[in-house]
Amino acid sequence: MRVFAPRRAGRRPAVSRKELTRLIFPALALVAWQAASSAGWIDPRVLEAPLDVAAALVDLTRSGVLLDSLLASLQRAVIGFVIGGGIGLLLGLIAGLSRAGERTYDALLQMLRMVPFLALIPLFVIWFGVDEKPKILLIAVACIFPVYLNTFSGVRNVDAKLVEAAQVFGMSRTAIAMRIVLPLAMPSILVGVRYAMGTALLALVAAEQVNATSGIGYLALNPRAALRTDIILGVVLVYSLLGLTIDALLRAAERLALPWHRTLNTERSR
């Protein structure tokens, strides 16, 4: 018989000990990097010190360039993700719920997802020009497949006995899909959403190398940043922090939307 310790009263600390432990190695790496740079072991033309990178980001923030570039990049990423994620979700639901849908386009999508989205850049430039369309479409294409695969897998892994029981009780196919299949597949769908957002940032980096006049990628390539490793490293840091922030927000949204799933995982880990 499993005995559970009583929960202590009071609020849970905002930052747990495990979360603090994960920050130890990055902090030590930054300290070692700064120490090596201060000692002259690292050529600043090759790798600027962390404090110099932070100073460059502060200057860009004060001038408003960083905020404008960040907003432009976020706009491209969000629009591309909404388009690609929506298409992937719809196709995944249809293929998961219908054998006919799977036979119609699953093989095609499995072939297309093996094509690197970077290889599509020249074609998109020829087809759509060099304005915002190829950038957004590149991000959209990159987001389709993670959402599609996880949606398809989540729908197909729903217990068939639950669907059969719902049919016995006279529920329609639409009601079964919306009230049973979709909620049970939601954890897998949200995993696909998280992967798609990460992929969107990767595609954003590539998209903003193509004749961009705004955005984080343009900020690293414009003449102001030429041969300045502090600005380039600052842009890389912004990309990484942006990815971590988006992932944390999606995790929080998952905990709010699926509290039962979090409780189940907690019980299993005990």
UniProtKB/TrEMBL annotation:
The chain crosses the membrane at residues 77-98, 110-130, 136-155, 176-197, 231-250. InterPro entries: MetI-like, MetI-like_sf. It is found in: Cell membrane. Residues 70-250 form the ABC transmembrane type-1 domain. The keyword Glycoprotein does not apply. The keyword Lipoprotein does not apply. Keywords: Cell membrane, Membrane, Transmembrane, Transmembrane helix, Transport. Belongs to the binding-protein-dependent transport system permease family. PANTHER family: ALIPHATIC SULFONATES TRANSPORT PERMEASE PROTEIN SSUC-RELATED, ALKANE SULFONATE ABC TRANSPORTER-RELATED, MEMBRANE SUBUNIT. This is ABC transporter permease. It comes from Caballeronia grimmiae.
